[in-house]
Amino acid sequence: MPYRWTKPRENHERLELWPYRSLPRSGFVWFIGLTSGALALPLIGVLGTPVWWGILPFMAIVLGGVWYALSLTYRSGNTREVLELTPRAISVTRTEPGKAPQSWTANPYWIRAELRPGPVEHYLVLTGDHKSGREIELGAFLTPDERSDLRRELAGKLAALREAGGG
């Protein structure tokens, strides 16, 4: 799963979430290499002719476009959400490439993890802070099943914290 719970110290839980990438960097190299070979194969018959020089720029543009598109998806894969949970505070920090980090903090005693209808299936929100009335989305890049599992895990941790007398 593209998230991980850790316990950096006593009474402190840390959740880190990131988008899943099905094509690792080594796969990217293989894909570009195989695509280059597949594009070059039909050109063997026209090698050294004026047709070669007419087609070559278009092949380079196609390959450059594929490279650029895949590079953009890797850049978006650097998005991170970090949730810190202690008896006194819950905080979420979202970091996206090229944007300032966004942070949210509340008292965990009042917070609930809920699945709602929204822009994605099983839209996971943290809500319930009566002071701010604000709710935030968590893990929009996760699959619906992963958001359901995460909600269950997070709800269990928040309930355990309330039972222990947090707040």
Protein topology:
Blueprint: E1 3-9, E2 12-17, H1 25-40, H2 50-76, E3 80-85, E4 90-95, E5 102-106, E6 112-116, E7 123-127, E8 136-137, H3 144-163
Antiparallel strand pairs: 1-2, 2-3, 3-4, 4-5, 6-7, 7-8
Helix pairs in contact: 1-2
Fold and architecture overview:
The strands form two sheets. The protein has a five-stranded antiparallel β-sheet with strand order 1-2-3-4-5, with no helix packed on it. β4 and β5 (102-106) form a beta hairpin. It is of the alpha+beta class and 167 residues long. The mean pLDDT is 88. It is elongated. The protein has helices spanning 25-40, 50-76, 144-163; strands at 3-9, 12-17, 80-85, 90-95, 102-106, 112-116, 123-127, 136-137. The chain is built from three helices and eight strands, in the order ββααββββββα.
Compact description:
The chain has 167 residues and is an alpha+beta fold. The chain is built from three helices and eight strands, in the order E-E-H-H-E-E-E-E-E-E-H.
Give unreliable regions as ranges: none
How many beta-strand segments? 8
Strand order of the largest sheet: 1-2-3-4-5
Query: How would you sum up the global shape?
Result: elongated
Most strands sheet: 5 strands, antiparallel
Main structural class:
alpha+beta
- Estimated radius of gyration: 23 Å
How much of the residues is beta strand, in percent? 25-35%
Order of helices and strands: EEHHEEEEEEH
Helix tally equals 3
